[in-house]
Amino acid sequence: MKKQDGRSLVARVRAWRPGRKTAIRAVLALVLVVLLPVVAAGSVLRASYAGSPAADAVTRGRDAVWLGHAWLDGRRGPADLAALKRRLDGTGMRDLYVHAGPLEHDGTLPASAYGNARKTIDSLHRALPGIRVQAWLGDKLVRPGEGSNGLRLDSARSRAAVVESARQVMRAGFEGVHLDVEPVRTGDRDFLTLLDALHPAVRSAGGVLSIAAQQIDPVPAMHAAARFMGSPKWWTQRYFGQVARRTDQIAMMSYDTALPVESLYGGYVARQTELALQVTPSGTDLLMGLPFYHTDDMGHHGHAETAAAAVRGARLGLTREDRDRKRFGLALYVDFAATDDDWRAYRNGWGARG
């Protein structure tokens, strides 16, 4: 009996060993799938931040800034407007994305969300002649099976409601719609279908359609790793181009990268700028987002994701890819979290006058 038990134990050990080796190999493969793209991307990003931007890679007069809801609900007054004017004087600021939402989960927008729109828009125009005021609308997206706590773009009724919400804010006096719905997964056909209806609706009302866009896969293997981890963070370059062709303006949210070092982040913005320029039509404004906020968490390290690094990265990407591009700018996120250093980095690095 003992002999049999011994043989049984040996048999079990022998049977277990191949499984253990298989498990080890699987773990190693997982590490390689995740780690190698990260290492490769790091090398690419460091190289992308090297060199000097061209002297003429500066503002083209097509910049934008995201403004919080306080501008519509009465919390911002004349003193705030005077301060904003000082910030923007001599810069290339063209568009203000004023938060006028959020959208309801069914795509509708209550009029109470933008009740003071006309007064706010008139005040901004008086203080900042030539500026364009867009309604910043957005919501969290959910897919089938993810519950009801968000907007479903697979619903034709919800898409139609978003289009009608855009018409509402245009009637209220806004000069464009800036749509920020997240996360849009790469290849999402329902999002493209929404843009196909939204763009002509906004244009027919005399406005422009602007989109807050996700980042482009920096290297193909990185996107594979992201799919493995279930992250919807990156779009393929092809999908970014499909979205850009359906808009008047596309502003990439080139922040929340989780990168821990300023040079890596600056290189990342340079690389994103190059990739976006390659697929954005010449008739569409391309804006690269600058981090004007300083929270620290897993996705954003304030000491690394600086406005100065983003400005320099955007200038490097523009210099290398399309130095003569006119429909290009920077978008600043967000006014209520910005510091004096952020504004100086934008003004001094991007060629403000005076």
Protein described:
Strand 1 (63-67), helix 2 (78-88) and strand 2 (93-99) form a beta-alpha-beta unit. An eight-stranded parallel beta barrel has the order 1-2-3-4-5-8-9-10, surrounded by six helices. Strands 6-7 form a two-stranded parallel ribbon. Helices cover 45% and strands 16% of the residues. It is globular, with a radius of gyration of 24 Å. It is of the alpha/beta class. The chain is built from ten helices and ten strands. It has helices at residues 2-48, 78-88, 117-127, 156-171, 189-204, 220-228, 237-244, 262-279, 307-321, 340-349, and strands spanning 63-67, 93-99, 132-140, 176-182, 208-213, 215-216, 234-235, 249-252, 285-291, 328-333.
Question: Which key terms come to mind for this protein?
Answer:
10 strands, 354 residues, disordered N terminus, single chain, 10 helices, two-stranded parallel ribbon, 8-stranded parallel β-barrel
In terms of topology, how is this protein built?
Layout: H1 2-48, E1 63-67, H2 78-88, E2 93-99, H3 117-127, E3 132-140, H4 156-171, E4 176-182, H5 189-204, E5 208-213, E6 215-216, H6 220-228, E7 234-235, H7 237-244, E8 249-252, H8 262-279, E9 285-291, H9 307-321, E10 328-333, H10 340-349
Parallel strand pairs: 1-2, 1-10, 2-3, 3-4, 4-5, 5-8, 6-7, 8-9, 9-10
Helix pairs in contact: 1-6, 1-8, 4-5, 8-9, 9-10
